[in-house]
């Protein structure tokens, strides 16, 4: 994506705006879920906002621009403020990916309406933007559901595990960044995370993007 900055600056700006929107909604959903579940930590930290600057993680955003996947600034929450830390922590973590999936489905519906309507001069432009919007939302959701700290999937899995395994799983949190680097590092020309994400991406995009646009996926 970063190469577009020099080859097609306009496309780069559009992609960057979409990326900002996708990450912002994702992190806002975390903060909103935590606040609704009784933990004001995110709100007091200024994260219950749709201001993109409050949610950008420098490393995660740069990685998104360079490698095509990344993350926003983790939303803090205090488990001691939650009635059921195990379950509520999983709900808070899943709220981000879920928001991206909901938005992707909504964009898919709009895409089909645009295609059916016809006659609009902006149809091709809107189609490209909607497809990119769907792709970014699904990509962020899938990547963040990988069960490695600091990604959302780590806490989601923790919430699903029986209590006897819960604390043992949380012990792996300290090694999360090591696992994440191993997943991202391009061994033999491609990163392991790409092999994990690609087939899942293709499946969801085949559902959300009409078959006639399959060549754009």
TrEMBL record:
What is the first-listed, main subcellular location in coarse terms?
A: membrane
What keywords does the record list, in alphabetical order?
Cell membrane, Hydrolase, Membrane, Metal-binding, Metalloprotease, Protease, Transmembrane, Transmembrane helix, Zinc
Q: Which GO terms describe its molecular function?
A: metal ion binding; metallopeptidase activity
TM stretches of this protein:
12-33, 53-71, 91-113, 125-146, 175-197
What are the GO BP annotations of this UniProt entry? proteolysis
Query: Is Hydrolase among this UniProt entry's keywords?
Result: yes
Ranges for domain Peptidase M50: 15-111
Q: Note one Pfam family from the annotation.
A: Peptidase_M50
Instruction: Name the domain of life this protein comes from.
Output: Bacteria
Q: Which cofactor does it need?
A: Zn(2+)
List the membrane topology term(s): Multi-pass membrane protein
Q: Where in the cell is it found?
A: Cell membrane
Cellular component annotations (GO), alphabetically ordered:
plasma membrane
Family, according to the entry, reads as follows: Belongs to the peptidase M50B family.
Its recorded name reads Peptidase M50
Species of provenance: Candidatus Gottesmanbacteria bacterium GW2011_GWA2_43_14
């Amino acid at each position: 994506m970063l190469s577009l900055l020099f080859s097609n600056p306009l496309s780069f700006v559009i992609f960057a705006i979409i990326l900002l929107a996708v990450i912002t909604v994702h992190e806002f959903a975390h903060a909103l879920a935590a606040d609704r579940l009784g933990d004001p930590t995110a709100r007091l930290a200024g994260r219950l906002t749709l201001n993109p600057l409050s949610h950008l993680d420098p490393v995660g955003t740069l990685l998104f621009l360079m490698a095509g996947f990344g993350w926003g600034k983790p939303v803090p929450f205090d488990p001691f403020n939650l009635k059921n830390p195990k379950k509520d922590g999983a709900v808070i973590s899943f709220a981000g990916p879920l928001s991206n999936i909901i938005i992707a489905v909504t964009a898919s519906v709009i895409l089909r309406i645009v295609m059916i309507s016809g006659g609009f001069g902006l149809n091709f432009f809107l189609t490209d933007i909607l497809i990119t919007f769907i792709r970014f939302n699904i990509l962020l959701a899938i990547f963040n559901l990988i069960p490695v700290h600091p990604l959302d999937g780590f806490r989601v899995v923790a919430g699903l595990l029986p209590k006897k395994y819960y604390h043992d799983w949380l012990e792996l949190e300290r090694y999360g960044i090591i696992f994440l680097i191993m997943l991202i590092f391009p061994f033999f020309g491609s990163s392991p995370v790409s092999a994990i994400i690609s087939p899942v991406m293709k499946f969801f995009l085949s559902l959300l993007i009409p078959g006639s646009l399959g060549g754009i996926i």
